[in-house]
Amino acid sequence: GQQLNQSPQSMFIQEGEDVSMNCTSSSIFNTWLWYKQDPGEGPVLLIALYKAGELTSNGRLTAQFGITRKDSFLNISASIPSDVGIYFCAGQGDDKIIFGKGTRLHILP
Amino acid sequence: DAGITQSPRHKVTETGTPVTLRCHQTENHRYMYWYRQDPGHGLRLIHYSYGVKDTDKGEVSDGYSVSRSKTEDFLLTLESATSSQTSVYFCAISAENYGYTFGSGTRLTVV
To answer: Which residues of A touch B35 (CB under 8 A)?
Structure first.
């Protein structure tokens, strides 16, 4: 079946640093989505990408839909403590959405 | 808020007992999904529904059944709970082919 490879699995960074994470797949997707999950809550949609090559920003977050339609990345600039959480990528083809296993972001004091 | 609620939020049950989790939405969305989240596995689809009485299996459907008798409610049933079903369960809803909105989850412990 379709699988997404999300990396890194976890990150430890200092407050103020930039963050980059990505997802790759052997399958082509029509839509790429990035979610964030806070402790004890469900994932919340951050950014949705609908076209190959599309670059979209949401505040300090920037995500891109890869040209090959098989990958996407998410950047967070100038990280702050509330950025802590698990970030999931998700790809959608013609049917259901497939999720990556998540990147757990830790911010060191 | 997105208008999706899950109940209960927490449950502890004994092995072999039946358990039903409820997902309720007020958005009138067509699609509803049940996922489980486990360390190292991310979110895995159990079952989904694309309309009243229309359901289908996901990648980890064994041991689970679902029902959707009304647009707003999607029930997940563990007929005979096992310890391997200890997990956090998330319901999600979506309009036609757009990103999902998730509930806050149900933490189920099978002892």
So the answer is: 99
Q: Which of B59, B97, B104 sits opposite A1 (nearest CB)?
A: B59
Q: A31 vs B99: CB contact, 8 Å cut-off? A: yes
Q: Is B105 left (phi over 0), alpha (psi -120 to 50) or beta?
A: left
Tell whether B45 lies on the interface with A, counting CB pairs under 8 A: yes
- Give the C-alpha separation, A46 to A82, whole Å: 14
Q: What is the pLDDT of residues A35-82, one digit of tens each?
A: 999 988 999 999 999 999 999 999 999 999 999 999 999 999 999 999
Q: In angstroms, rounded to a whole number, what is the distance separating the alpha carbons of residues A55 and A72?
A: 10
Q: Does B43 touch chain A (CB under 8 A)?
A: yes
Tens-place pLDDT, residues B17-70: 999 999 999 999 999 999 999 988 889 999 999 999 999 999 899 999 999 999
Output the six-digit token pair for B56.
């289908």
Other CB atoms within 10 Å distance of the CB of residue B17: 11
